[in-house]
Every structure is written in structure tokens, then in C-alpha cells.
Write a structure and sequence with these properties.
This protein has 1 helix and 22 strands. By secondary structure, it is mostly beta strands. The protein has a domain of 201 residues: Beta-galactosidase, Chain A, domain 5. Strand 17 and strand 18 form a beta hairpin.
Length: 289
Amino acid sequence: MVVIEDGILKISIHPKGAELQSIYNKSNKTEYMWSGDPAFWGKHSPVLFPIVGTLKKDTYYHKGKAYTLSRHGFARDKEFSVSNQKPATVTFTLLSDEATLAVFPFTFRFDINYTVITDTLKVTYLITNTGKEDMYFSVGGHPAFKVPLAYENSYDEYILEFNETEEAPRWPISPEGLIESKPTPFFDHTEQIALKKELFCNDAIVLKQLKSTTVRLMSETTEPGLLFDYSGFPYLGIWAAKDADFVCIEPWCGIADSVDTNQQLAEKEGINELGAGLQFERTWSVKVY
């Protein structure tokens, strides 16, 4: 386990998947991350790369050749190396190799940086196309936060509060894990989602092109809480395992295949195109209180 800290926060990250496992507030002695209880869901904050979500039949096509990738891609199961570390910051690195090229025919360097600044954790994804042709990929986060954050509270005392009034619909997920062709109403000119475990009976809440750039996880009666900033991520997923005491706030640059996809990687919704030698960078952050 790799540990960084500064001021209020102590952060723990596992090199496997460069997975964030703990955000501990030393000031109020609160852990903000889900425990990873395998009885419900054994992960904490997997990194999604080089796809987000599910591919139709776990398959995509590039230049006439079929490739197979399981849901959310391979990064979460790979061992990252530590390429730079100081007391309050650490960078993990994953390089393409024969195994990745067999399922994703692009050479790349994927750096994930975690930096603590007092009460805020910043997580930056930096993807470099080290090849000689355009690269097509998705990337996203999947952090799970403990709910309730205060032991005296219950799950349904918590809300997600966005910084803008929203009217966006929800994009349902099919039994095969694909995005349905038509959305269903969700936000009704409001900035809040009241957390209830039944919200996730039909998988994640998938949202596109929200006006908001931040969302607050909070109880209306007590602290602690957190402010999550997902600026630069065009999709947001909200999810929890059945009956589990957590909520995932998932910033995505990419999305699962639609039910009517043609399975061509370069034409996939939300795919990012990166020219040879270029870099792609996105940052999400968590501010605790």
C-alpha cells in the first residue's frame, strides 16, 4: 500500500490498478471510502481504461479486426509501478505491453497522479499516445464513498446536491449492460437526488452532459460530507451494489456501448481520439469536511 498525506488527509492507494482505497480525515477521524466488503462489492475505486462500461458481446472492431475486452477494461487488474513519490503526491504508471496489445492495439503510457492539498484529494489521469497512429480510448473513475459517513445517520438521510438545477434524463442500462436507445425522465428541475437503495435496482444511474460540474454528498442534518468536482467529464454514473452502504460517484470520459452500436471503436459514443505523441489529461477531486 502506498500512503500520502498533507494537513488533514491521509490517502492510501494500492499499486494493483492504482486503486484508491482510503481517504481518511485526521481532523474529524472519518474514513470517507467504502470498505470493499466482498459480500457486497469487493472494490474501492477501480480505474476504468481503455473502455468505460460494457461492450456489445464484449467485442469491438478496429481496422476490420475483432478485439475482446471485458467490462471497464484491463487497467483495474494491472499492477502499476510507482514512477514518482513525495510525501503529499504519488504517480503510478502503466505501460502497454504484449498482453495489452493483444486486446487493445495501441501503445500508450498511462499515468495516474494522486495529490493531497490540505482537505482536498486531486486525481489526474494522463494518457500519452506513444504510438505512430491515432489512439481511441475511454477513461473514467469509479470511487465508492461510505454512506452513512456519520455512524448515527442512516443511508436515506443523505442526498447528492449538484451545483446547478438539472433537467437531464436517466439513460437506462439493458440486461446486457448496454445503454438503451431512449432515456427516461429523472431530474425535474432540481439540483438534488435523495439517496435510497432502491435507486440502483436497475443498475447505475447514467447521466449525460449535466450542467453541473460538482456534486456534494451530504446529510442535511449533520457533518461530515464531501464535495466532488468532475469538471471536464461529459458523463456521470451513480451506482451502489444491492443493499450496500456506499454510493459511487463516477466521472467518465466514455460510456458503455448503446444497444444499437455498430461496434466500431472509432465511431463509439464518447470515444476519445488521441493523435500520435499527444497527451490527454483529466482531473477529478474530492474536498472533505
